[in-house]
Amino acid sequence: MIMNTSVSIKDLSLNFGAVSVLKDLNLDINDGEFLVLLGSSGCGKSTLLNCIAGLLDASAGQIFIKGKNVTWEEPKDRGIGMVFQSYALYPQMSVEKNLSFGLRVAKVPQAEIDKRVARASEILQIQPLLKRKPAELSGGQRQRVAIGRALVRDVDVFLFDEPLSNLDAKLRSELRVEIKRLHQSLKNTMIYVTHDQIEALTLADRIAIMKSGIIQQLDDPTTIYNRPRNLFVAGFIGSPSMNFLHGELTKNSEKTVFRSNGVSFSLDGYDTAQPLQPGRKVVLGVRPEHIKVDENLGPEMHDATVDIEEPMGADNLLWLKHAGHTMSVRINGARRFKVGTPVKLSFDMSLASLFDAETEERI
């Protein structure tokens, strides 16, 4: 299926003095796609969003929205609606006036303003709040109003800059569902910045993971999680993080195996297009839920000892001592283990990851 490009970024760079924040960045965002820019603080994700919005001028490169070169256009002329981390509502105005303010400034006819405000308030379920002032609203209600203010502009592209980070965990979860429902209803292009990987994995059609102004991997959430392109992505996604074992590939009875701290691990089931050359220094990565405790997944089991147990309700997180490594394993919350208990581990190599120790790229 051929996708129409909604936002296209070509060779974009941004420098603050001698500091390079974005580096020759290229990114095409499909029409109607929900794209999440994910990364830790300082990775360049908000800077990229601000360049798309026109709040920052690029040092080099071009930005296209709906095929139009908007690199030097004013924000109001780019056909975007933006929702910030801060609600930025006018405290003296009612919700209704906050929603309509931009339209009134743009001299949109009153009948059209009323129509757009009614539609946005219905979609966001804030009709009963229209006569209230921001001080009379909860944090979640204020953020709904902020989203509604972008919604009334009736634009093709919505930009979200960490809109939920000021809310508590319960509200974040609730509004996450609302934003996903909003996207499914409107089918507009949405670009969403966050450092929260749960938000990214649950909301995105695709995730762009950023580090030092460079996109490390651009893929759908399942691929990002199960087949990370490099060691950085593998360690960044997942809580707790992927387990990493450093070692090398060796030959054992005509088969190539992974060896670490004197222990050999069968690679049966590992999917790679590259030949596994003996002698290569590698890092084996296995997620906590892809290790079984006292359950045989394959041709071998390994000895380990329970070091710490963290009951988490539905899940139980075990920290195990194994062959000189400390490993995290996620098991069913109904299973309990005492500290010091010897256990057997089995690894699902079909879901494991191998990385070259030098390049840190996936093998």
TrEMBL record:
<dbReference type="InterPro" id="IPR003439">
    <property type="entry name" value="ABC_transporter-like_ATP-bd"/>
</dbReference>
<keyword id="KW-0472">Membrane</keyword>
<keyword id="KW-1003">Cell membrane</keyword>
<keyword id="KW-0997">Cell inner membrane</keyword>
<keyword id="KW-0547">Nucleotide-binding</keyword>
<keyword id="KW-0067">ATP-binding</keyword>
<dbReference type="GO" id="GO:0140359">
    <property type="term" value="F:ABC-type transporter activity"/>
</dbReference>
<dbReference type="InterPro" id="IPR015855">
    <property type="entry name" value="ABC_transpr_MalK-like"/>
</dbReference>
<dbReference type="InterPro" id="IPR027417">
    <property type="entry name" value="P-loop_NTPase"/>
</dbReference>
<dbReference type="InterPro" id="IPR040582">
    <property type="entry name" value="OB_MalK-like"/>
</dbReference>
<dbReference type="GO" id="GO:0016887">
    <property type="term" value="F:ATP hydrolysis activity"/>
</dbReference>
<dbReference type="InterPro" id="IPR003593">
    <property type="entry name" value="AAA+_ATPase"/>
</dbReference>
<dbReference type="Pfam" id="PF17912">
    <property type="entry name" value="OB_MalK"/>
</dbReference>
<dbReference type="InterPro" id="IPR017871">
    <property type="entry name" value="ABC_transporter-like_CS"/>
</dbReference>
<dbReference type="GO" id="GO:0055052">
    <property type="term" value="C:ATP-binding cassette (ABC) transporter complex, substrate-binding subunit-containing"/>
</dbReference>
<protein>
    <submittedName>
        <fullName>ABC transporter ATP-binding protein</fullName>
    </submittedName>
</protein>
<dbReference type="InterPro" id="IPR012340">
    <property type="entry name" value="NA-bd_OB-fold"/>
</dbReference>
<comment type="similarity">
    <text>Belongs to the ABC transporter superfamily.</text>
</comment>
<dbReference type="InterPro" id="IPR008995">
    <property type="entry name" value="Mo/tungstate-bd_C_term_dom"/>
</dbReference>
<dbReference type="GO" id="GO:0005524">
    <property type="term" value="F:ATP binding"/>
</dbReference>
<dbReference type="Pfam" id="PF00005">
    <property type="entry name" value="ABC_tran"/>
</dbReference>
<dbReference type="InterPro" id="IPR047641">
    <property type="entry name" value="ABC_transpr_MalK/UgpC-like"/>
</dbReference>
<keyword id="KW-0813">Transport</keyword>
<dbReference type="GO" id="GO:0008643">
    <property type="term" value="P:carbohydrate transport"/>
</dbReference>
<feature type="domain" description="ABC transporter">
    <location>
        <begin position="7"/>
        <end position="237"/>
    </location>
</feature>
